[in-house]
Design a protein that fits this description.
The protein is of the alpha+beta class and 506 residues long. The protein is built from 14 helices and 23 strands. A five-stranded parallel beta sheet has the order 8-2-1-12-19, with helices on one face. Strand 10 and strand 11 form a beta hairpin. Bound molecules: flavin-adenine dinucleotide. Flavin-adenine dinucleotide binds next to helix 1, helix 2, helix 5, strand 9 and helix 11.
Length: 506
């Protein structure tokens, strides 16, 4: 049976919205893999919130605006920092076990935060704890049902969005689901790049499907590259959280030299894009495929207790971070841009909403402040859920939708992702960009014709990144262009692109 509301994605944003929707009707949450395979599950460092005694929402606001490099939507930032504390208190009431020192919540510091304001859980499993809490809450609501291994392949469009086509990997069949309102909470797009910290599900499906349905895509050129992913041959690019540097970890090149003082006064705690480019430049200078991240001076027992998951995972790949510096290199990590929404998750397409990493509220501007994304998922998940609830006055008939594409989707059970797309995106739309490389990327991507839905989405997203990065003739936040190395006032605006029109700046 069709639900009232369809939520695509079971990360923090989708789960939080589903809880909000449950009192207004039936909610189906679909996820293309298991319900636990999401970036939310892997988020380690924490969740930023101005709750500690020496913190204020104004300071959190200032730090977010500073990281966003002149491109944050101020109202969105204000909304995030003001509504964050209540949203976190609610999570705690629902059972989220954030780490404590005695009776008090324990706050740590991360790069570019002026206060200790990062809550964490089980040391370094914060996202998992938040997702677990939300999932448990959602499961307690009879109106919410879940379907795993159910990939949305296309939105159904007829006078707005009316539902989605779903590929059921277990039953090997595709079928439509219709709903009064649809939420895209499909997460990020890191897998478009060859090196990424993101899980396999992060192929930018939400952005690509929304684009095809006529939605506006905003600031998609801004991709944050995390400076420190484990760089061990044959191992996944496992993230070594910012919190390690927050606890004093030092960066050294393969000659054993500390180098961050040459790049930024905040050294290891400089903004992520600065650290990523510094590492990339040291790798080029030394000809090595990595630099080293060293926390050994804090002692193995501290490291083991504070970062149990990171410690165990590194050990599995042959690195004991308690006794040895870890080889690290940058990797694609977070999409600041996405499907453009207002503060309530509304897109420009009727009945289509977006929240979390798939959305672009403007809250992150040109660069995200560390640990603001879990908070964004929760705060804007609530708002999107409420708006969808209101949008459903009960008077809207649910028109028969038709799949957006005439072309029959070729569905493949093979989940291997097209490496040629990932390589082009990494090499030409990565940490350091230029007009020449971006044009080459466009030309190379244009002629590719991936067959799987994920492949098509990845190509679409890579093309949008290349086009918008090319149009933005400046370096700002996470975008660095060798041919335009300075920030330009003319581009202190958001890029907007949609199927009907080329890139504009607003
Ligand atoms: C390794 C790592 C560490 C991080 N650490 C932090 C941190 O410490 N603090 C912080 O604030 N942020 C962190 N982030 C970022 C943060 O985790 C994400 O931005 C956030 O969790 C995104 O939540 P979401 O709900 O939008 O999407 P996700 O949690 O990624 O969930 C996406 C969901 O969409 C589903 N989906 C995708 N495509 C489809 C489709 N076609 N059909 C059906 N379902 C689909 C997926 O199956 C999944 O259920 C980290 C990210 C990574 C990868």
């Amino acid at each position: 049976m069709n639900p009232d509301f369809l939520v695509i994605g079971a990360g923090v944003a989708g789960l939080r919205a589903a809880i909000e929707l449950a009192e207004a009707g039936t909610v189906l949450v679909v996820a293309k893999d298991s319900l636990r395979e999401s970036s939310s599950e892997y988020a380690q460092g924490g969740i930023a919130v101005a709750l500690s005694d020496d913190d204020e929402v104004e300071l959190h606001e200032q730090d977010t605006l500073y990281a966003g490099d002149g491109l944050c939507d101020r109202v969105a930032v204000r909304t995030l920092v003001e509504e964050g504390p209540a949203a976190i208190q609610e999570l705690i009431e629902w059972g989220a076990a954030f780490d404590r020192e005695g009776n008090k919540l324990a706050f740590t510091r991360e790069a570019a935060h002026s206060r200790n304001r990062i809550l964490h859980a089980h040391g370094d499993s914060t996202g998992r704890e938040v997702a677990r809490t939300l999932y448990q809450k959602a499961c307690s609501l009879p109106n919410v049902t879940f379907r795993s291994y159910a990939a949305t392949t296309e939105l159904l469009v007829a006078d707005g969005v009316t539902g989605a086509m779903i590929w059921d990997a277990k039953a090997q069949r595709e079928f439509p689901i219709q709903a009064r309102a649809v939420l895209l909470a499909t997460g990020g797009l890191g897998r478009v790049f060859l090196n990424t910290t993101n899980p396999e599900v992060a192929t930018g499906d939400g952005v690509a499907m929304a684009y095809r349905a006529g939605a506006e895509i905003g600031d998609i050129e801004f991709v944050q590259f995390h400076p420190t992913a484990l760089a061990v041959e044959g191992a996944p690019r496992f993230l070594l959280s910012e919190a390690l540097r927050g606890e004093g970890a030092l960066l050294r090149n393969t000659h054993g030299e500390r180098f961050m003082e040459r790049y930024h006064p905040l050294q290891e705690l400089a903004p992520r894009d600065v650290v990523a480019r510094a590492i990339s430049s040291e790798m080029t200078r030394t000809g090595a495929p990595h630099v080293f991240l060293d926390l050994t001076h804090r002692g193995e027992s501290f490291i083991r207790a504070r970062f149990p998951r990171i410690y165990e995972t590194c050990l599995r790949y042959g690195v004991n971070i308690g006794t040895d510096a870890a080889p690290v290199a940058p990797a694609a990590h977070y999409a600041m841009g996405g499907v453009r929404t207002d503060l309530d998750g509304r897109t420009n397409v009727a009945r289509l909403f977006a929240a979390g990493e798939a959305a672009c509220t403007g809250v992150h501007g040109a660069n995200r402040l560390a640990s603001n994304s879990l908070l964004e998922g929760v705060v804007f998940g609530i708002r999107a859920g409420r708006a969808m609830r209101e949008a459903d006055s009960g008077t809207d008939p649910c028109p028969q939708g038709i799949p957006q594409t005439a072309q029959k989707t070729r569905l493949e059970t093979d989940r291997s992702l097209p490496e040629d797309i990932q390589r082009i995106a990494w090499e030409k739309c990565g940490i350091v960009r230029s007009a020449e490389g971006l044009r080459e990327a466009e030309a190379l991507l244009e002629v590719l014709a991936p067959q799987s839905p994920e492949g098509r989405n990845m190509r679409q997203v890579a093309l949008l990144i290349a086009r918008c990065a090319l149009a933005r003739k400046e370096s700002r936040g996470a975008q660095f262009r060798t041919d335009y190395p300075e920030k330009s006032e003319a581009f202190a605006r958001h890029s907007v692109v949609c199927k009907q029109a080329d890139v504009t700046f607003r």
